[in-house]
Amino acid sequence: MRDDACVFCRIVAGEIPSDRVHEDDAVIAFRDLAPKAPVHVLVVPREHHRDVRDLTSRPELLAHVVEVARDVAAELADGEFRLIFNTGASAGQTVFHVHAHVLASGELAEGEM
Known about the structure:
Helix content is 21%, strand content 21%. With 113 residues, it is an alpha+beta fold. It has one domain (7-104): HIT-like (HIT family, subunit A, 2-Layer Sandwich). It has a five-stranded antiparallel beta sheet with strand order 1-2-3-5-4, covered by helices on one side.
């Protein structure tokens, strides 16, 4: 599943460069271009799903996103982290391809995610 107009689908496909910190058959994880914390990584499923609600039918994929978030925080920070899914425009979602924000190593910067 892919949406050719989706920026994250294009990042997954390698059409747009990213600073990847993890990739496997199900997800990629890359550094956010506008970080809100010293460690700010996005964990993005390779398949296009609009938001985290779509993953209720894919619990194994949702669990894998959380596992990758845990591993990224362990590797890049002290293992403690915030995991945020923005769901819907009024909740701050700007790219409508499900993604988890992994934030660690300090206070959040001001502004939206």
